[in-house]
Automatic annotation (TrEMBL):
Pfam family, one: DAO
Originating organism: Paragemmobacter ruber
Domain FAD dependent oxidoreductase stretches: 6-371
Name this protein carries in UniProt: FAD-dependent oxidoreductase
Keywords, sorted A to Z: Oxidoreductase
InterPro entries: FAD-dep_OxRdtase (IPR006076), FAD/NAD-bd_sf (IPR036188)
Domain of life the protein comes from: Bacteria
Length: 402
């Protein structure tokens, strides 16, 4: 381990490892990269506890394009992340699509407005009326549905740890170093951060520091005397078995069911021979960074009633597993914060994904690498999701937040 690195990344899960990969893959970068990760098992990392899906059905063009790049990157992941002498990583990408259902006039209007943005960006998304929806997915009760939005390609789910480990393995093969330790302080002189202090007692100099510490982003920022409105919000995921599974009954996409977003906000998708589901809680306070106790009551009180009303097949279901993970929740506008601090320019944020970190990690990692190597964005301009809006209290509008 060196005494100084050109870039020190705080956090080695999917965001930090994506940054490390894109930096070391950039032909114009010949610097040194250190990734500091406090828990190499990633047991409680948001990455490991995510439902790991990707969609292009957003309302803002930037988010649509971020996911379009992510989807293409995930499709080609095995080739791009191949490490000599090792088996190519397989993310098992299921392109099952997303299905948004609208039951009210306002929900219908939102789907139509979002669809116009998505199509303008080239996303493969269609709108269906009630009859078209019933033909495509005959297992659903659709009498109350006014409109549906369905992603025919570029959307689905994949291996969460596969994505993270693929980035990590390739970054290490390209020269990035990973250190199991914890950043407990950040040194700063005036308008520059100069290094990190570790729990082990080590002091490491840094040319730039990237905050990729997930739900703990605010803790990392405070060490540098900075603020970021990111806090841990608990989300409980449930896996259930279905007595009479509807998987295979669709008349589109080879019979495969999509990830369905019910008008109530409950989501459900196939997970092998089971189904994965969840919902935003009625009350959603910030939680302790070490609080991972599932909210068991959400299944009986929120999720099962919505699913049973939506499909007869979901009346007879049984939970077989559940867990709680944390969103790195941006309390200003629920969207990513990527970019330099305007006053401390060598401190870079990659935070606040609010549940979209896995799908946005390729574009975010590429963007951060471009800022460091080139001093600005070369591909997708992420300026609108930069830190400046946090200072100004100016929310980045995104209507399709789940």
């Amino acid at each position: 381990m060196r005494a100084h690195y050109d870039v020190v990344i705080v956090g080695g899960a999917v965001i930090g490892s994506s940054v490390a990969y894109f930096l070391t893959a950039n032909p114009d970068f010949n610097g040194s990269v250190l990734v500091v990760e406090r828990d190499p098992t990633y047991r409680f990392a948001s990455t490991a506890l995510s439902s790991s899906s990707i969609r292009t059905q957003f309302s803002n063009p930037i988010n649509v394009r971020i996911s379009q790049f992510g989807s293409a990157f995930i499709r080609d992941f095995a080739i791009t992340m191949q490490v000599p002498g090792e088996a190519p990583p397989d993310l098992n990408f299921h392109q099952g699509g997303y299905l948004f259902l609208a039951a009210s006039e306002s929900q219908e209007q939102t789907l139509r407005e979002n669809h116009a943005v998505q199509v303008a960006c080239g996303a493969d998304v269609v709108l269906w009326d009630q009859a078209e929806l019933r033909r495509a997915f005959p297992h659903l009760n659709v009498d109350d549905i006014r409109l549906a939005s369905y992603g025919r390609s570029g959307e689905g789910w994949f291996s969460n740890t596969g994505l993270m480990n693929g980035f990590k393995a390739k970054a290490r093969a390209q020269g990035a170093e990973y250190l199991t330790d914890e950043v407990v302080a950040i040194d700063r002189t005036g308008d520059r951060v100069t290094g990190v202090r570790l729990k082990s007692g080590a002091v490491i100099g840094a040319g730039s520091i990237v905050n990729a510490s997930g739900p703990r982003a605010a803790l990392t920022a405070r060490m540098a005397g900075l603020d970021v409105p990111v806090e841990p919000r608990k989300r409980t995921s449930f896996v259930f078995a279905c007595a009479q599974t509807p998987e295979g009954s669709a008349t589109v996409n080879g019979g495969r069911l999509p990830l369905m977003i019910d008008p109530t906000g409950v989501f459900c998708r196939p997970e092998g021979r089971f189904f994965l589901c969840g919902a935003a809680p009625a009350e959603d306070p910030a939680v302790d960074w070490d609080d991972f106790e599932p909210r068991y009551h959400e299944f009986d009180e929120i999720i099962w009633p919505a699913l049973a009303a939506r499909a007869p097949a979901f009346e007879a279901i049984k939970v077989v597993n559940q867990w709680a993970g944390h969103y790195d929740f941006n309390s200003l506008d629920h969207n990513l914060i990527v970019g330099r601090h305007p006053e401390v320019a060598n401190f870079i944020f990659a935070n606040g994904y609010s549940g979209h970190g896995l799908q946005q990690s390729p574009a975010a990692g590429r963007g951060v690498a471009e800022l460091i190597v080139h001093g600005g964005y070369r591909t997708l301009d992420l300026s609108e999701v930069g830190y400046e809006r946090i200072v100004e209290g100016r929310p980045f509008l995104e209507k399709a937040v789940i």
